[in-house]
Amino acid sequence: MITRRRFTSAAMLAAAAAALPRNASAQEKPDQPQSAAEPFALHYIVASCMYGTAPLAEIVPEVPKTGARFLEIWDRPHGSQREQIDAMGEEAFAALLAEHDVQLGSFTCFRQGIFQMQPEMQVVRRLGGDMVICNSGGPTKLSGDALKSAVRDFAEKLRPHVAAAERIGVILGVENHGNSLIQSADSQRMLLDAIDSPHLGIALAPYHLPQDPEQIARLIRQLGPRLVHFQAWQHGNGCHRPMPKAEELLQMPGRGPLDFEPLLAALEEIGYTGRTEIFMHPTPRGVPILDSTAAVTAEINRARHYLEQSHQ
Q1: DSSP 3-state assignment of 5?
Q2: Domain span holding position 168
Q3: Which residues, listed in sequence order, are joined to residue 14 by a DSSP beta bridge?
Q4: Please, are residues 267 and 34 in contact by the beta-carbon 8 Å criterion?
Q5: Cα separation of 46 and 44, whole Å?
Q6: What residues contact residue 116 under an 8 Å CB cut-off, 6+ apart?
Q7: Which of 68, 70, 220, 308 could pair covalently with 266 via S-S, beta carbons 3.0-4.6 A apart?
Q8: How far apart, in whole angstroms, are the C-alpha atoms of residue 88 and residue 56?
Q9: Residue 231: beta bridge partners?
Q10: Percentage helix, strand, coil, to 5, in the chain?
Q11: pLDDT of 248-295, one tens digit each?
């Protein structure tokens, strides 16, 4: 009898690649809302950096415990799991995912910059994932004609990378990161108007927007099928200075003041079938959000229960 550990590396990667249609199915037909016969539900993905720089062998078994099927890989300084994949090899990582019935969803990697993501697209695709996420970078704090011009120039530079995403079979998600060109609702809409492709969308982080739930909900409705990733993450007291853990955790759903109910209603209204990531940043980066792996998993579950109760 052939065991999983005796699979050849080619077989393991083939199995991972075969998972891609399941990963991407929610994105391949973004204009098709969930069936009216099916109740709306969030599909969860776990960010590896929530566990700091813990080894993948410790993180992957936690994913199903959080009610998620998908894992998102982060690199330094937020986590080290992208570097761990390089160290262990893609075959070993694919085997670890298969062992625990977890699928790769996406990479969020800021180290290369958005114009250097094509190699990451290839790795994600080989491992069965369907998305790479990065921020746009500067310039920042523009408005009016200056913003329109900067977004137009950025879109022209981005076009070949969107074309590469289409060839490879993945989605390029642009996070509306703070202090970046594509941060505001206006800049997000401008970018999507400039490049009409299902392989480019917004990875929405409410943390980086004014903390008005109705405004965020309105943006979700405007993004519609171009919303490709949703971070359940609020600003709270921020994440750029040391503070007591109770204050730091105000970024999590159900702890800080942001009411997620209008956001969830908007997600249902657009028939959102992408993935939802319960998220926060610790200070300093690279540490887990709580002191133990079990505590991190429990906190993700607490936030998940809040989201689900908010939508009832």
Answers
A1: helix
A2: 4-310
A3: none
A4: no
A5: 7
A6: none
A7: 220
A8: 10
A9: 277
A10: 50, 15, 40
A11: 999 999 999 999 999 999 999 999 999 999 999 999 999 999 999 999
Angle, CA 279 vertex, CA 209 and CA 157 arms, to 5° = 55
Q: For the chain, what is the mean pLDDT?
A: 90
List strand residue ranges (DSSP E) for the chain, in order: 43-47, 70-74, 103-108, 131-135, 171-175, 200-204, 227-232, 275-278
| Location of structure tokens 């391949």 | 28
Residues linked to residue 51 through DSSP beta bridges, in sequence order = 288
d(C-alpha 25, C-alpha 311), whole Å: 24
Burial grade of 196 (CB within 10 A; 0-12, 13-18, 19 or more): exposed
Total of domains in the chain: 1
CA–CA distance, 155 with 190 (Å, rounded to integer): 9
Structure tokens at 312: 């009832």
Give the pLDDT confidence score for residue 19 in this predicted structure.
Answer: 42
User: What would the two tokens of residue 258 be?
Assistant: 């942001």
Task: Tell which residue, 52, 62, 46, has the closest CA to residue 290.
Answer: 52
Rounded Cα distance between 61 and 82, Å, is 17
Helices and strands, number each (H, E), in the chain: 12, 8
Confidence of residue 36 (pLDDT cuts 50, 70, 90): low
Look up the pTM and report it. 0.89
CATH of the domain at 212: 3.20.20.150
Side-chain half-sphere CA neighbours of 224 within 13 A: 11
Is 171 within 8 Å of 125 (Cβ atoms)?
no
Q: What is the pLDDT of residues 159-197, one digit of tens each?
A: 999 999 999 999 999 999 999 999 999 999 999 999 999
CA angle, 200 as apex, 69 and 277 as ends, to 5°? 30
Amino acid making up residue 109: C
Q: For the chain, what is the largest distance between any 2 Cα atoms, rounded to a whole number of angstroms? A: 67
Bridge partners of 104, per DSSP, are 71
